[in-house]
Amino acid sequence: MKIPAGGRVGSRCRIRACQLVGDYNLGSAFRPPFLPTLVFLMLQRLIPLALLVLISLPAALLAAQPTDEKKPLRDLNTHCPFDPPTSLEAWQSRATDLRLQLQVSLGLLPKIELDPVKPNIYGKVERQGYTIEKVTFESLPGFFVTGNLYRPAEIAAGKRVPGILCPHGHWTEARFYDNQADEVNRLLASGAERFENAARNHIQARCVGLARMGCIVFHWDMIGYCDSTQISFDRAHRFAKQPQENEVTEKGWLLFSPLAESHCQSVLGLQSLATQRAVDMLLSLEAVDPNRIAITGASGGGTQSFIGAALDPRISVAFPAVMVSTGMQGGCTCENACLLRTGSGNVEISALIAPRPLGLTAADDWTRTMPQDGYPELKKLYGLLGKEENVGLFPAIHFGHNFNHVSRVSMYGWMNDHLGLGFEKPVLEQDFEVTGREQLTVWDAAHPQPPGGEDFERGLMSLWANILDSQLTGLLRGDQQQVQQLADTLRDGWRVCLGLTTGRLQQAHLKGEETDSGHVELNDGDGNHWMITKLDSSDSAPDLLVISIGEGEQRVAYSLPPASDLEQPLVSNPRLAAAYTYGYNLPEFAQDAQRIALSLAWIRQTHPGEGIKISSTAANSARAAAGVFCLQEYSGAKDQRITLALSPEGFRFAEAESIRSASFLPGSARYWDLPGLVACLNADVELETDDPAAYQRLADLIEVAGGTLQRVN
Predict the structure, then answer these.
(1) What's the CA gap between 307 and 304, in Å, rounded?
(2) pLDDT at position 518
(3) Cα separation of 348 and 180, whole Å?
(4) Of 150, 433, 586, 711, whose CB is crowded by the most CB atoms within 10 A?
(5) Chain centroid to CA 188: how far?
(6) How far are the Cα atoms of 165, 313, 419 from residue 323, in angstroms, in the given order?
(7) What digits encode the pLDDT tens for the residues 598-629?
(8) What's the CA gap between 127 and 113, in Å, rounded?
């Protein structure tokens, strides 16, 4: 779909949580105070394309059309090997980038500021050696986490015990799971389970076993399961597509919409936030030892476990079962998010837990190759950190996908060793009484179920965005340290949005060769080739991307193709969730920005010491800004100044109406769209504006980045 130069503004495009367009009309509840003026600053026609040959950089596709066929897209089944660094310093640098990538992709940067968790705990059920209680609390205002708390029957006064998080995974009915009789018999006959009750509900068996070992255990619902129905099961786990006209209304916008993706809003992000709030909940309990927080789950619960532990250093021990591998990375929409696995995979993400104890299982599923492919590399990394004993793999390849008694015994031993529980191994389960739905469900007459549905979902997405926008706005109004914090947050966000945490650009080996026809063929050493064209001094090409060096007769210019109007390709998947493509592949705009950066780097090398001027309009202003941002991250050179004369003409990434759109860029709205990107530039930016206040705000941020901003009338 082609995005017009001025940006398409239709009825659905008028609603933007960050106030990215002046006619945004959700009302004052969603209006960060300064953004309309900041946007007005960027929306004006600022410097006409005059005598200078201009550079315009594409709205979403290739900075210069590649000459080779494009590489196939990665998807969730693409092999994702982990190549651990050979030095501690290299791993620390990589881990910092990867952790940042996770935070951005899951909507967790900046860290959201919320009221302390105040759990509602009630409905105690007494069992042999343990108790079960009902728990609810809010992860976001009005959005409830629902589950059960398992405690040892007796905890000595003043004693602190471990707290263990138990996400359940994609088993039918999950917290209310009750297996069929024939499957129970099969599990018992195969040796997968010892007791009929554990075969009926292996998830509850895990919680009971850990509680009997002296731990306080929290088992909560995935979004859409059991009591967590404010966002439905079909929305969270079976999403395939939704009508475009239904995505945005006056109440807000839906998950999986381009606008939600531009704010890094996903089911996995909501579940990761719930995991962090669940840690908060455990730490609010007087008997929980804050130094002994652990997490264990299988399948989709394994995804929650390793991502939760990778993000939250308060989790001291992790045991994700039958999930981490170099194979299938997670099939459900709740296990995927845009930007999450670009340049990475589950093994490397789980390596972020190091040097904390990490236990894994493998079965006859996508994890079957872990003993040869994935685990040795984790072992090598832990050895580099001097903690080789803190990683363990417990393969049981003769069983299918499971968290059965054999695997749970491995988990109990791991927790026993690393939480200091003092049991002799192996730690075997004892039989227990299955507690049914009627005693586990949290909603009753005294605790009524909160509202849900699509309108609730729209409001929740708007609220989530508004809370974070208000935090960033507050920093802008603060002291110098807070303004610096805001500048750092925007820069970090854009580094991820433009793919700079993947290492792809930093590892480029740039080569350029001029041809007799006036073309320059560039390549990055990774099989990507593209062309730029040397212009005659008299050429004028306002629709092309033109980079100018020098003045008068000494002036040299190079042109690149105009902004592409081609749709971005998607991976082959019947479910049209953006994360299945952009969770594994950089958006075309990000790839384009990196090629522009390399083109600028070649021009710098070819014309050392000469100033570079880029003049651009509309979508090309975004290309220019993104290319310069990538260049400063790639080279860090400040000896050769770049001047940007920008006239955005209303272009906004958040205006993309489809995940196929050339201008679709996940995360862009979260970091203030094009104005936020410009505010990160180490360049001399020329803008025309009649709004001095907005100019000054933007100038302050650019100054932090090392650039300048000049008003041009």
Answers:
(1) 5
(2) 75
(3) 37
(4) 150
(5) 41
(6) 17, 21, 23
(7) 999 888 888 888 888 888 888 888 999 999 99
(8) 38
